[in-house]
Amino acid sequence: MNSRHLVRLFFTTLFLGGIIAGIVGFLVRWEQFQPMFVAGDFLEIISTFIWLMGVGLIFGVISQMSFFAYLTIHRFGMGIFKNLWDGVQVVLIGFVLFDLVYLRYIAFGDGGSILPHLFLAAIVLAVGLVIAYVKMKQTNKRAFIPALFFMTVFTVLQWVPVLVENDQGWVYFMLWPLLVCNSYQLLKLHKINEQIAREAGNKQLNQSKDYENNVSKA
Question: How high is the pLDDT of residue 207?
Answer without folding.
Answer: 53
